[in-house]
Amino acid sequence: MTRKKLLVLLGSVCLVLVMVVMACAAPAPAPTPGKFSWRLHSDFAAGAGEYVPLLDFADAVFERSGGRLKIDVLPGDSVIPVGEILVPLGAGTVEMMHTAGGYYEGILPVLVMEGGLPCQLMGDIDAFNGLLDAGLFDLFSEAYATQNVHYLGLYSGSAYPCVMSTVPIRSLEDWEGVKVRGFGGWLKLYNKMGASGVWIPSGEMYMSMKLGTIDACTWSVDGIRDLKLYEVMGYLILPPLSDHITDVIAVNMDAWEALPDDLKKVVKEASDDVYGRITYSKMSSEWEMVLGLADALGYEIFTLPDADVEKIREMAFELWDEYAAEVPDVAKGIQITKDFYGIQ
Question: Which pLDDT score is estimated for 32?
Fold first, then answer.
């Protein structure tokens, strides 16, 4: 090799080395300005009827934002255990939370009303929204703000509870000693009725009923088909005692405030007219389905006598007063409810 060729070769090698060093030292590409990527963590299993509309919600946000906000939806227990999302949400571990109203009353006691105390959320969907506008929405928003969380929306999942049982329950007396899965104020009501109320995550209800760990469970009506509880239940117990059960969508406060106003509008509108609308419509039609599928799916339907239902309602109203005496914010919420419905 001639001296000239050797110098050319060495020069080329040096140039390549300089380019490699410069590339390694260069900073990572900055995120595209104006684009956001969030994770929405649910407390519900992927098959739950309340979970599935979250996928429609995320798609709507992505489309309406022109791809500027992408939301990945995570089912219960995928990153954070069920019933433990609120604190990590406030800390920014995830940007959004989907849960059942009342799951976090241990942290924020007023949220016992968020899922609705027994027999509290009555009337049609307009009445439900009217009650929120009458003051309950603001009450819950103020509570969530103490956890660095923006309260986005509270949505109806139609009538509740759908009681699925492995034992026949034809009357109030038959509730004596029944081990029933519930949550919030419903647990205390079932205890008043003589049952033994327990809470377990939705993903554990199937095996708990199959193994006899519990005798019955309460869930929204989608539990029969979507969670396949018809395979382990023998009886559907009617009537539901409230006209609405609720789902919640909330956002980390810092993430919310970082969004430009037009994207905030996109998120809020999509949560209302996509998630809220689809969930209520699906659950309402699901009640019609399961009432007509009892023979095909292998369960009997029992309806409690009117006199027993009235006794249970009286127990529920006693429970309202007990909660009001314990928690000032609950007392405020109960007064809002009574004023709205004209209850003395």
Answer: 56
Handedness of CA 254, 255, 259, 265 (dihedral sign): negative
Same-domain pairing of 177 and 309: yes
203 and 300 part of one domain = yes
Q: What are 294-318's pLDDT values in tens digits? A: 999 999 999 999 999 999 999 999 9
Same domain, 92 and 182: no
Same domain (yes/no): 334, 186: yes
The model scores a pTM over 0.85:
no
How big is the CA angle at 250 (ends 244 and 256), to the nearest 5 degrees?
150
Instruction: Please determine, for residue 210, whether its predicted confidence score (pLDDT) is greater than 90.
Output: yes
State how many domains the chain has: 2
**For residues 241 and 117, what is the distance between their CA atoms, to the nearest angstrom?**
10
CA–CA separation, 19 and 6 (whole Å): 20
CA-wise closest residue to 33 among 340, 186, 258, 318: 258
Exposed/middle/buried for residue 288 (C-beta within 10 Å: 0-12, 13-18, 19+):
exposed
